[in-house]
Amino acid sequence: MTPVTKPCSVVPMKKLINSPDTVVADFLEGMALAHPTSLRIDHENRVVLRGTPKDEGKVAIVSGGGSGHEPLHGGYVGRGMLDAACAGEVFTSPVPDQMQAATKAVDRGAGVLYIVKNYTGDVMNFDMAAELADAEDDIAVRQVITNDDVAVEDSTFTAGRRGVGGTVLVEKIAGAAAEEGRSLEEVAEVAERVNACARSMGMALTPVTVPANGKPSFELGDDEIEIGIGIHGEPGRRREPVASAREIAEKLLDPILAELPGEGPVLLMVNGMGATPLIELYIMAKEASQVLAERGVEVSRHMVGELITSLDMAGCSITLLRLDDELTALWDAPVHSPALHWSADDIQE
Amino acid sequence: MTPVTKPCSVVPMKKLINSPDTVVADFLEGMALAHPTSLRIDHENRVVLRGTPKDEGKVAIVSGGGSGHEPLHGGYVGRGMLDAACAGEVFTSPVPDQMQAATKAVDRGAGVLYIVKNYTGDVMNFDMAAELADAEDDIAVRQVITNDDVAVEDSTFTAGRRGVGGTVLVEKIAGAAAEEGRSLEEVAEVAERVNACARSMGMALTPVTVPANGKPSFELGDDEIEIGIGIHGEPGRRREPVASAREIAEKLLDPILAELPGEGPVLLMVNGMGATPLIELYIMAKEASQVLAERGVEVSRHMVGELITSLDMAGCSITLLRLDDELTALWDAPVHSPALHWSADDIQE
Amino acid sequence: MTERKTTVTVPDLIAWLRRTGELMAEHAAELSDLDSAIGDGDHGTNMKRGFAAVAGVLDEDFETVDALLKRVGSTLVSSVGGASGPLYGTFYLRMGTSQKGATELDAASLLGAMSTGVEGIEARGKAGIGEKTMLDAWMPALEAFGRAGGSLADALRAGAEAAAAGRDATEPMVATKGRASYLGERSAGHIDPGAASTALIWQAAVETLAGGSDTGSDDGAAS
Amino acid sequence: MTERKTTVTVPDLIAWLRRTGELMAEHAAELSDLDSAIGDGDHGTNMKRGFAAVAGVLDEDFETVDALLKRVGSTLVSSVGGASGPLYGTFYLRMGTSQKGATELDAASLLGAMSTGVEGIEARGKAGIGEKTMLDAWMPALEAFGRAGGSLADALRAGAEAAAAGRDATEPMVATKGRASYLGERSAGHIDPGAASTALIWQAAVETLAGGSDTGSDDGAAS
Ligand SMILES: Nc1ncnc2c1ncn2[C@@H]1O[C@H](COP(=O)(O)OP(=O)(O)O)[C@@H](O)[C@H]1O
Ligand SMILES: Nc1ncnc2c1ncn2[C@@H]1O[C@H](COP(=O)(O)OP(=O)(O)O)[C@@H](O)[C@H]1O
Ligand SMILES: [Mg+2]
Ligand SMILES: [Mg+2]
Ligand SMILES: [Mg+2]
Ligand SMILES: [Mg+2]
Known about the structure:
The complex is a heterotetramer, with two copies of chain A and two copies of chain C.
Chain A: H1 23-34, E1 39-42, E2 47-50, E3 60-67, E4 84-90, H2 96-106, E5 112-117, H3 120-137, E6 141-146, H4 166-179, H5 184-196, E7 198-204, E8 224-227, E9 238-241, H6 245-259, E10 266-272, H7 278-294, E11 299-305, E12 315-322, H8 325-332, E13 335-336, E14 341-342
Parallel strand pairs in A: 3-4, 3-5, 5-6, 10-11
Antiparallel strand pairs in A: 1-2, 2-4, 7-8, 7-12, 8-9, 10-12, 13-14
Helix pairs in contact in A: 2-3, 4-5, 6-7
Chain C: E1 7-9, H1 10-26, H2 28-38, H3 43-57, H4 65-79, H5 84-97, E2 104-106, H6 107-125, H7 135-147, H8 152-169, H9 193-209
Antiparallel strand pairs in C: 1-2
């Protein structure tokens, strides 16, 4: 008998999944089971919808993108925020059919706003969907492209700044504006304004492993961090030695502040990239707050947590949004989604 | 000139911290800055308190334990849940002085319930605090020790089952009971009942690195997982090859179901250990729901997220709580804490 | 030597698309590796998924070239996502619409159809030559195909060789479109994954449309 | 040979506590490593932090043994946390209260004081001998100290040797108390960290209370 030789050993992935092929379908089934009444999921089209649609005559908001950024976008479907989220494959834009199905499902006669992160694929797929909505379904669609990532320095020689953390803020505030009964034009305008007033930058302690690839997206030494990363395992602006929370806060905030328009108080969002313990995010929130205080920037609203992630990447991003009274009031308005939740009787801060 | 020899190179830790010594203090400062009105933090005693104390005449609830399990416990301070949380050093029980300060701060004349996870250190430190409260401050104190971890099999030859995921449920439900105005006796009774009806089990994909140690708490091969781990980097019941989400759900649920008392519907909690992406937790929620359906167990409430963690450990735990009408109503009652939040007008599910 | 082909029929196109799908599946890991270096590491799985979906519709009845290609294009649009889905989808959609009612294509109309398809890629992606995208394989390939003269087979081989050369020529380029553009100078030194998948499409064309068993071009994807 | 000591004064006790703190700091990594194997890896930092806090109060004025030891005990309780905080804290608290008003201790009263302290550990932790805890170092140490006869120095050395032996004897034990008990049989094969820190306390006692420069015992912590 010839001895059985072990095939070139492939180390199985350390992930709570069944198979790389079923990640998105399984995830959506889990969401449906975990939120049986507040969400409704169209599994065929991979669209997450509110359990109870919003009132007739209000603008609906659709977002979506590649999966792997949870809770974005499905976790933000709910009263006061999104009406539908289209889940693409991991790190791959959804296809126009999904947006078309979402658009038809959520339109309440007042039109639909698409919130799209600025990636070539997302922009093209949402574009095609908007063309279809217009041509086939006669539904008014407006699009807002978010592009808040200051890590992309030279937007004339690139596909333009990426949409990252600011997207969460656009979705929240546009959602509140739509809930107020504003017109499609007005909701799009406020969404544009949030995007124009938001700037972000991220960093990674570790790369990300896409289930379908099974290996890290880039190599990072034990004593290295990557500054200016995106949310798809793209390498960043530069590689540096491990630094303290304080130093990292400065490395992220200084380029943000250099490009943040306007004056006055800001919203500070400290976001974990997927595998970052909450205790570390609060430490980053402290350092970021202190850096801002030293720079003379008043922080009037805070949000800390894993809000827009990159699978199992450890690291964080910081987003600043320049606030005014209108944006503040829309921010404070109630929101009832799985991942973002506050009510009228909460004191905002 | 003699060449400068590099000292035995210590790889800096990949964590968003300033120094292992300041982790807890920095974290609490971050919490204070991020929640300036809803929380108040006594930095000297490391106690997280509600921004607005509850009404006079209601039972107050104090919990606490080692840090590193965020959002537990500080993230659960708020209306409908805890009145105060005492933060120990990382993975180290707080000291009696902290509980004493918390007790004095939160007592509204109706006594204080301590919710304590069953670890020798926690039990002894809370015991000493209860003795002090009684002797020095004349405040009525009752204690509930949570011990829901079925990974600890032989509780007569051990310090007894550990308190893990069930603790979150005890804190939520006791908090709701206290908010209703029940007596200390009654709140303690319902807390005991939740603990008695809850069972948990956890698993790790990776070990945990305590900042003060700078190295992983145990070694785990690239193709190994650890079943039956605790939340302090303790090794588990046994080591096994990497398995699918479905298989892991069975490995955790079968021992839980073997020890879960009673009949009827359950609350299913799927918890991430600190470095687990939400997409994976929802996949686990799907698999757990399906295993339970096959075992004939009805799931009437769900909670999915990072709720009781172990620093940067990747992995998950499952907790089941056998529900009845009273526990269900208390579960559904509003809660307004940084980490757990729903309001009276949310449809529970 | 086998019979010399001068036209491409609907079954020929189906064979081409089927072979394309096989090559995408074979080279999926390679394409994703290229994409990991300068993008998000999914180009191989995207192409594999898309052409698997295409293979699923190839058994339907197609009377005309445009019926087939439009079905292929919309299948890609509906199944790929990302940047490559709308781009390749648009390619086949436009390629089809340019040949309304045709049941076979000679070399000239094949060139015309593909040119219209590539114009669709340009219109959708707003990129031009030298931006380190799939266009850097498409454009030289079409040019070589048009210039080749001679037989359809020779023209296809010339196109495939130019596509492979165009693919390789993306290596030193600095990307200014798509995800790779975020890397700036760091994008140089890597082959563009979309250019590599385009070279595979041309390899499949040679293998299926040129007639005979000649597989002329090199292995199509970068090693 | 230096003068033979027969009693322990308040300054002697202060020297003992200071030396204990030094040893805890020196051996912190070792103690935490022992704790990582069967616990949560913090025993070294816990002890280091606690005795650093103790060192911070040793400069206060202490007239009596009980004033000093009660202050030490409550400082440990207030600064250590975990299992070891209340246990070691209780030890010094009870040791102090057993000697109300004393300004120095002879061998017999030192033994009595420490025995009362250890009873406090037993009462607080509800453990007994053989459960793989610090008691497995404390109990043989006290027994050897009591049995030793001879000089205070000899008794201390006998105690320290027995503490070290007791520490080593925890290695094969299966823990049934504390965090290590969760490991069941897997707890065997590792020295108990609390027993190791107790052996350090005895090592410090020999170095500071026995008189002379004799440091008799071995290095105190397991290697
Ligand atoms: N604007 C564009 N025009 C033409 N081709 C492009 C453009 N943007 C990207 N591409 C092509 O798409 C390829 C990436 O496809 P893929 O990885 O599937 O999508 P994504 O970038 O969305 O992950 C690139 O290698 C490039 O060839
Ligand atoms: N019930 C007990 N009685 C006596 N000693 C105990 C008991 N439980 C634990 N210990 C001791 O405490 C030591 C652990 O202390 P430490 O690591 O500081 O606390 P924790 O276990 O809370 O992390 C153990 O090695 C053991 O010697
Ligand atoms: Mg992609
Ligand atoms: Mg501990
Ligand atoms: Mg890609
Ligand atoms: Mg310990």
